[in-house]
Design brief:
Layout (H helix, E strand, L loop, with lengths): L2 H7 L1 H6 L4 H13 L1 H19 L7 H12 L3 H8 L2 H21 L11 H8 L1 H10 L4 H8 L1 H4 L4
Helix pairs in contact: 3-4
Length: about 160
């Protein structure tokens, strides 16, 4: 891009007063030296003035109300974020902490459970076999010893 093209591109910023002091002086000197650039600047100023004189459209009251009501509406994410605020979360967190403490404090530990002796554990592990033996009619532990040693009583040929 040539220097003249750069100056023409900066005309809008010059007219709006957005250029630095050094750039403004440089452009003003170029406007004095180049009649075509000066004519372009005058045309742009006249165009801006003509646009400024155009009537501004006014929005109806119904449109204003509709736009403002839409601005007041919250998105689902905003509603969710508003729900999880500190005043709402503090009681819930407090209740959860109290429940956790109650579970830890009131939970029966291993020391509270009755100790199981070896015979009770044996019965629990062999409950199915013992139920089958009950069908046979065994009533005492001695009967169980007899059944356990039946393989010794078998006759050998």
């Amino acid at each position: 891009m040539s220097t003249r093209d750069e100056l023409a591109a900066n005309l809008t910023a010059y007219i709006d007063g957005e250029l630095s002091e050094l750039e403004t002086k440089r452009l003003e000197e170029a406007l004095k030296a180049d009649p075509e650039l000066a004519a372009l600047e005058r045309t742009m100023r006249a165009t801006l003035q003509a646009v400024g004189r155009l009537p501004h459209p006014e929005a109806s009251q119904a449109l204003r109300r509709a736009v403002l009501s839409r601005l007041d509406e919250k998105t689902p994410f905003e509603k969710l974020r508003a729900f999880f605020t500190l005043p709402r979360l503090a009681p819930a967190v407090g209740l959860a902490a109290a429940a956790a403490v109650a579970v830890v404090v009131l939970k029966p530990g291993r020391a509270d459970r009755p100790a199981l002796d070896a015979e009770t554990l044996f019965v629990a592990q062999n409950m199915e076999v013992l139920e089958d033996l009950d069908v046979i009619g065994l009533e005492t532990p001695d009967d169980l010893d007899v059944v356990a040693s039946l393989h010794e009583l078998e006759a050998t040929p």
